[in-house]
Amino acid sequence: MIELEKLYDRIIQRTNINLRELDFDVATQIQDLIPLSQLTKFYAFYGISPNHPIDFQFRHSSLSGSYFLGKCKVTNSLLYKSDIRGDELKKKGDSFQFKDFSIPIKRDESMSIENSMLIKTLVHNFSHDPETPEEFYIKDTISLHFANIHGAPSRGCFLEPFATVDLTTMNECVIGAYSYIQAGEINRLNIKPGTVWVRVPDNFNFLYQFPQDQLDEYVCFNKCETPKGILMDFVNDRKEDFQQVFDMVSKKQPISVPDNASLDPYAVTKAENHINEKVLVSQRAFLQNVWMGMGANAQENSIIINSRLERYNVTAHGAKIIEADLGEKVFVGFNSFLRGKPNEKSNSRLTVGKGSIVMPHTIIDIEDQLVIPEDTLVWGLIRNEKDLKQNSVSIQEFEKVETGLSMGNMVFEGNGANFVAAFRDRINHILEANGAFFDGKKNKGHAQKNQNMSFNTIQPYPKGDLEGLYPTIIIQP
Fold it and tell me: Architecture of domain 2-231+454-475 in CATH?
């Protein structure tokens, strides 16, 4: 394990060098957080299908429990139970639109992870950096439990647990626990835990800050300690269910799935579930007593329990939905936590009206029945009707905002109609990419393309100086 220890120290040093101007020491944050012996216990695996071009290159790295799809290169890195999904990378001949620039793509894009450590992190989408349109890079970066790096190239960064960086290029930044950042490009920023920031320069700027004492109840990260809080406990309570799936993958579907829908064999299904046409259930998703309408999806690390989702619902990466009924075309953003409660004496379920947008990193945790009206924009921390009034607004009213709006811990600047239009476009793109609009011939998406896929495993050196590292592996057509 000598080489594994050297690699671990190398990654910390390179990240620290990048973060020196922030006076941030990664070693004091993660020392012994993941025992290196854990990295020797699990196989890695990759998917092959007729619909996904492949080019896997693994050099001097540990890939424990991680999944790869598409064109991925990993060098001098430690990955632990991470998902690296390259099924939306740009292809040669495509054109990438950035503001007034139409950038031709000269070669197939690839994901490149170098001198980085990713712990239970999802990497997905494609590079939104106009300077590197053919490479989605993650370099000298450390990312912790259940973070999302979504279309967000990063260099010299540290992401705390449950953080999300979305369509944003990061350089030498620290992203606090449970923060969501979609801001185009950020440099040398230390983002406080519980920050929700959505910005398009010269257009709009949405900013919400969770109260720290309330956030700590759900997500709390202290130096060199395993993350704590309700969200972490909720995920850990289901670890054994996932372990059974990863111990042995059966090719037989555990439940009936339409021909134009997809249920990943690395997803967990328990009790009675119903999957309609054009539904996508991704790997590491968890379903228990769930009804999913046509075109709905459950993305990576999402957990849905005792709930009904009408058609065209989007459950984004890491979102949790429990004891809830969601109307048509409801969007539940990254790492959001929506929890109603079962109660035999009274109805304590959560209802979200059709067309509503639940902002990324929203927590709705109720004791009594709560109904969110149709076409409502929701954010922040909501436990009752009073919180809902403070942290929501009808989309119709929000579209009338021309200069700004302030409500509680949320401050918005800019044009509300443009903000809503951007979200609506994003939701439609997600549905289209996931195959919700497939008509039998056109508009194939992940729900259709992921059906005929084989999964192959690779394993590390079992003993000696190289224990835990994988040999150099190149897999090409």
Answer: 3 Solenoid (2.160)
